[in-house]
Design goal:
The complex is a heterodimer of chains A (about 250) and B (about 600).
Chain A (H helix, E strand, L loop, with lengths): L5 E8 L8 E8 L6 H10 L27 E4 L2 E4 L12 E4 L6 E3 L2 E2 L2 H9 L20 H10 L7 H5 L3 E2 L2 E2 L3 H12 L7 H7 L14 H5 L6 H21 L2
Parallel strand pairs in A: 1-5
Antiparallel strand pairs in A: 1-2, 3-4, 3-5, 6-7, 8-9
Helix pairs in contact in A: 2-5, 3-5, 5-8
Chain B lengths: L8 E5 L3 H12 L3 E6 L15 E2 L11 H11 L6 H21 L13 E2 L9 E2 L5 H19 L2 E5 L1 E8 L5 E8 L5 E5 L2 E4 L20 H8 L4 E2 L4 E8 L6 E2 L3 H4 L3 E6 L2 E3 L1 H5 L9 H14 L10 E4 L5 H19 L8 E10 L2 E2 L12 E3 L17 H22 L8 H19 L7 H15 L6 H18 L13 H25 L33 H4 L2 E6 L6 E6 L20
Parallel strand pairs in B: 1-2, 1-10, 2-6, 10-19
Antiparallel strand pairs in B: 3-5, 4-5, 7-8, 8-9, 11-18, 11-20, 12-13, 12-17, 14-15, 14-16, 16-17, 20-21
Classes of the chains: A alpha+beta (about 250), B alpha+beta (about 600).
Amino acid sequence: MAEQKTVTFIIERQDGPGEKPYTQEFEIPYRPGLNVVASLMEIQKNPQTKDGKKVAPVVWECNCLEKVCGACMMVINGRARQACCALIDELEQPIHLAPARTFPVIRDLLIDRSVMFESLKRVQAWVEIDGTWDVKDAPIQNPYTAQTAYEISHCMTCGCCLEACPNVGPQSDFIGASPSVQAYLFNLHPLGKFDKEKRLNALMGKGGITSCGNSQNCVEVCPKNIKLTTYLAQLNRDVNKQALKNIFNK
Amino acid sequence: MAKDMTKKKIIVVGGGISGLMATLKICEAGGEVDLFSYCPVKRSHSLCAQGGINACMDTKGEHDSIYEHFDDTVYGGDFLADQVAVKGMVEAAPKLIKMFDRMGVPFTRTAEGVLDLRNFGGQKNKRTCFAGSTTGQQILYALDEQVRRWEVKGGVKKFEFWEFIKVMKNKEGVCRGIIAQSMNTMEIRAFRADTVILATGGPGQVFGRCTASTICNGSAVSAVYQQGAEIGNPEFIQIHPTAIPGSDKNRLMSEACRGEGGRVWVYKDGKPWYFLEEMYPAYGNLVPRDVASRAIYKVCVHMGLGINGENRVYLDLSHIPADYLERKLGGILEMYSEFVGKDPRKVPMEIFPSIHYSMGGIWVDRLHHTSIPGLMASGECDYQYHGANRLGANSLLSAAYSGTISGPEAMRWAKEGDRGSEMTDAEVEAARQECVDEYEKILKMDGKENAHRLHHELGDLMYKYVTIERENKGLDICLVELKKMLERWDDIGISDHSKSANQEAMFVRQLRNMILYAMVITKAARMRDESRGAHAKIQLDEQGNVMKDKDGELIFMGRDDARFMKITIVSYNKETEEPMVSYREFDHSLVKPRPRNYAVAKKE
């Protein structure tokens, strides 16, 4: 009974961009409420493998530890998710950690997700306000529409939906659910909708909404429970309508 | 077309709400911004703000006024905030809300479609605009989107995953740029600028476990302090009364819970005791944070009434209809369920106070210039607006508002400021080389200490001596221990020698800055012999024992306006590496100081 409970991790590591991945096994003391980020912090305090070899601490990205910032997304036991809220008590051991390889790996579990922020530029995910100065009162908004906007606006650009999507990666150029659905978000706003056509046109070309294969993986993994497939479907209709409009207005 | 040589270059360090707001203002004024951040700016710590943002919108038929917001803020801050600065902030607040609304912040709305308002601590009127329980996230995203728009237009260049190391100064001592390091390639580079704004947030990690993100280490603030910037009021550290205790982090449970009707209680004599309501009948559960935290601490630590004898009390929402809770507080209730495994809609949450926010920070004038010319500071890293205690939902406001001041002023300074000589290439290279040498030295450290374990000890030390109840004997011990810790830092051993994303080496550099900033906080707390806002000091007798009254209650020092209604100024002594404390007058000409008592309704 006196035996100390432990947690075992098998972590996929990589020393730098383009280097060969390898795995290492780590063991840390168990404590109640422990999560994957807190476990990685324990490894930092005593960076050695299970068989006692001293190694460099595991590198990963994290900020808020409350599932709002999106930084600590990685693949845990085969599933893309946030590491901070991955509680050890709910995971099968040994726990396998790997970087989300849909994105370029910088080192260990640290990845480069800048492609997602570039996609937000493509779909013009913003409201074209005149400036930050005073103009007049902001328009009244339908509270129900605002609630939908609020739901979508929880998207933290973590990349789970891209990692889980069979159509994002070298085999296809789909920009992914997250940035696409942001276009839908800004099309809902009373001022944002002035630029609806621009956003729909931006989603028409290469890597746009037609590259979505409707596998529905995204909605399964979204840590914020955003109804991604519902909004992708509505967006798809809007894009098709816009395409027809474009033909007739030529 | 030839490049426009008249364009002014401003460096903004930090991509939270204040940094992004300043960036937008600079772009609109025709400047160019190099924006530096530890992380993609969309992941900055501002997004952890939950409950809301204060602004007198007066849409609830309560006859709220800007004056009332002003007075609540000054009174809540125990009369240590610059009143003219506070006046500017509260007057601007409603305009900022309308701007955020236009940008697309999905504020929670009423049936009629106008912005809903909720109650918050230390305020009698409904004055807090909110987006569910993720207001900071939503405001940060709106600013992030607008900055991205400017990135496309060419006004902003982002340096994400770059760590600020220090500022560069010319012969005349004017800040003319920064040295920064890529957190991925480890390259160290010098960047020139006409003005530099630090918007690097708070120092929560100095205390280890806190509600702050892992990136909130105060390292940048400490770095410029060591380069001559004065620190103002650092002893005023806000302890948030309601956080979920955790071994990796104390997760915030928003004041909005109490704003929406949540009640705090423990069992006493077998019955629920709503101690805040009993102790403070006028404000009840909505007393300001310093008051609520001290009460919870007293009930648990001194009266031994915590849940199962542990340091926990109940925060109860279970009497409120579930659909109402979902709409108003959904995000954080989900977080509680996820991390604790219990449903707060059905059972009371278990919470305890935690380090949360720093009222103090880099001293700035009203235009946000620091004491180093050419260097400005805004957001939580500055000391302005909150005095000795910040009201809930005033931090999003001060973050945004300070950016609207620092941004345009950075442009004015770039055009008209007394900036002295241009730095020569040799001077810039020398400044850079200094940082390279320091970094190379860290990589060679082969002592016995592990930096992360040392950080853990630092947090334990600060929690023990410099939190809710402070006394001079303990603070003296803490200062001695911190000095020892600084020596132990020299004995750190590095286990990571990689040239790619070497997080350990960067952390070692940050840790030294954290220890030095811990000394700033502790020394300032030691010197302020009074109780004011978040700084509560126990009276010691001549033998150095804590004093108690006849009922066994601790005797605290009172507020001492004659000696201490002054700003604490801390500057760095290069020879001894120790903080030097002095005091400075400030503007409190608008409302006269009066005793602060939340047991009764506020009188004017």
